[in-house]
Amino acid sequence: MSGTNRGVALVLITALSGCHSTAGPVTWLATAQETEQSGYGGWFEPVNGSVSGGELLAVTDDSVLFLGARGVEVVHRAAVAGGRVIGWNSRAGAVNIAGLLGTLSTASNGLFAFFTAPAWFITTGVANTTQFRHPIVPIGGSTTDQIARFARFPQGWPAGLRRDQVRPKPGARPVTASTNP
């Protein structure tokens, strides 16, 4: 590998190693395909400092319910000034790996690697950002209706279901400040 290609590979590895991370607990978020078959909600992250976030359970006319560290928690819709819901694990890291391999493959391009390596680097960055943001729905005061589709109960809280009956996703670690960066 030429010195130019080594330099490009080093820059790519350095740049992509810290691009994005999924905000919800890694053991909790499923892939897009698994989410289609799962009955669990997306990861709810309000901006409200007194609420840590958790699995989105339901959105009602006046409240947002989620399963957090203290069990089922209720936040008034007006108090949800911002935040986001993450529908699934975007697996953006797989894009980084493909981009790294593509960039390394430019070593066989000779002098054209001067053009092809940066092209791989740029397109990998764009693809990574797009892939990472795809499952994220920002929350604002008027957008809380849009996040209901990512709830465990998208049509609202089921009649007759007590809050103490709701259980977390099997195998998921308890949600604490250390598992929710």
List the helices and strands and how they pair.
Elements: H1 3-16, H2 32-37, E1 43-46, E2 54-59, E3 63-68, E4 71-76, E5 83-86, H3 92-105, H4 113-133, E6 136-139
Antiparallel strand pairs: 1-2, 1-5, 2-3, 3-4, 5-6
Helix pairs in contact: 1-3, 1-4, 3-4
Annotation, overall tally of beta strands:
6
The amount of helix comes to 25-40%
Oligomer: single chain
Number of helices: 4
Give the radius of gyration. Answer: 20 Å
What's the order of the H and E elements? HHEEEEEHHE
Mean pLDDT: 75
What spatial form do the alpha-carbon principal axes imply?
A: elongated
Largest sheet: 6 strands, antiparallel
End-to-end separation: 38 Å
Structural class: alpha+beta
Unreliable stretches covering 5 or more consecutive residues: 16-20, 174-181
Strand order of the largest sheet: 4-3-2-1-5-6
Number of domains: 1
**Approximately what portion of the residues adopt beta-strand conformation?**
15-25%
